Amino acid sequence: MNLMDMINKEQVVDRVKFDIGDTVNVHTKIVEGDTERVQVFKGTVIAKSGSGIKENFTVRRVAFGIGVERVFPLNSPRIAKIEVERKGRVRRARLNYLRGKTGKAARIKEKARS
Description:
This protein is mainly beta. The protein has a domain at 23-99: SH3 type barrels (Roll). It is built from 1 helix and 5 strands; from the N terminus they run αβββββ. Strands 4-3-2-1-5 form a 5-stranded antiparallel β-sheet, with no helix packed on it. Strand 1 (23-32) and strand 2 form a beta hairpin. It is globular and about 45 Å long. The model has no long low-confidence stretch (mean pLDDT 91).
């Protein structure tokens, strides 16, 4: 095991497992002056990239008719927690096609419970 593997293993945060297509609530810590608060970003995971300490995921939501996407580093200390609200069933690794869809066309089927 080389030095980079040891650093990665030490720095990787153990988080809840989620996949592409899942609806998640990402609780992020926001610092405003002296105070710190938690803000929730709820949306659909449309992509994951990287591995180990450099892993990122993209969450998309529609706010007031405008699509908003945010890329979060999975191992960031700014993320307080991630809650999986709904498991989605998709057949793609990236859901970029959702950018052109609105309303019912943008729905993702729920994964069957097993």
